[in-house]
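User: I've been trying to design a sequence by hand for this structure and keep getting stuck. Would you show me what you'd pick, starting by listing the structure so we're on the same page?

Assistant: Good idea, let's start from the same input. This is the structure you sent:
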């Protein structure tokens, strides 16, 4: 990779769901003083093995229409899949050192006469545009909604939203010295990989809503290049091949994110 920002493949995507007030950083707190109104999400014991909490945020919003009003107090936690990061870092001798998959969970405490009308579709009107913008801000190209694919969490009354995009990974070049031959350049070409963004929204009763999801690679990263060690054309003399296979296992990563959502 040509820069640390390129290595940090998907860092902070969850920050776009900080939530309905449009904040885009998972670091710190918004400074609200009514702390008792923020009900932090809880997870089943053991499900976060391999994940590390990297930030929290609380936000407040008000909405009124036709004489009905609702106030929302959103408390968000952000997690990185550090077990995957460590495995990839070790496999690539440190060439990839950054976040590969993220998870976020927001619990929204709703108050006011309009809480009944604040259904999942209304919450989505706030959450989804911000989530899409956060993907685009991280240099994900061609971000677009798609029909949600399986697996999805089996949560009663939940609405599922899925996005796809393309992320361009820069090529890698490394000079190597070969005894008796000299210096040669090993080059791995640039490659685009598909990225998935997943958002699940549901309510429990009239006064509590949840928004959960994450962003993660939808395909593995694997590239290979061959050069001639003797200076001629490949296939004529001694050739050297170099390859990188991150073995990301995107299906497994998706299932891990789904299991976290179901555990809320």
């Amino acid at each position: 990779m040509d820069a640390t920002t390129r290595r940090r493949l998907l860092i902070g995507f969850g920050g776009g769901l900080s939530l309905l007030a449009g904040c885009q950083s998972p670091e710190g707190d918004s400074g609200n003083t009514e702390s008792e109104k923020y009900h932090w999400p809880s997870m089943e014991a053991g499900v976060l093995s391999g994940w590390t909490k990297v930030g929290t945020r609380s936000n407040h919003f008000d909405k009124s229409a036709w004489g009905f009003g609702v106030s929302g107090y959103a408390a968000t936690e952000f997690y990185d899949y550090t077990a995957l990061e460590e495995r990839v870092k070790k496999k690539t001798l440190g060439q990839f050192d950054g976040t590969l998959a993220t998870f976020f969970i927001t619990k929204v405490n709703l108050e006011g006469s309009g809480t009944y009308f604040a259904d999942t579709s209304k919450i989505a009107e706030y959450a989804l545009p911000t989530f899409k913008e956060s993907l685009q801000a991280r240099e994900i190209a061609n971000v677009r909604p798609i029909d949600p694919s399986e697996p999805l969490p089996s949560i009663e009354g939940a609405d599922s939203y899925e996005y796809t995009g393309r992320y361009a990974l820069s090529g890698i070049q490394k000079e190597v010295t070969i005894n008796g031959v000299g210096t040669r350049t090993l080059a791995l070409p640039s490659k685009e990989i598909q990225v998935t963004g997943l958002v699940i929204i549901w309510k429990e009763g009239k006064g509590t809503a949840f928004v959960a999801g994450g962003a993660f690679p939808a395909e593995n990263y694997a590239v290979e290049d061959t050069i001639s060690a003797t200076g001629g054309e490949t296939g004529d003399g001694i050739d050297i091949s170099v390859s990188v296979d991150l073995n990301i296992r995107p299906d497994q990563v998706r299932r891990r994110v789904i299991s976290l959502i179901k555990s809320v």
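That's my pick for every position. To get oriented when you compare it with your attempt: The chain has a mean pLDDT of 78. Helices lie at 4-7, 82-91, 120-137, 250-262.
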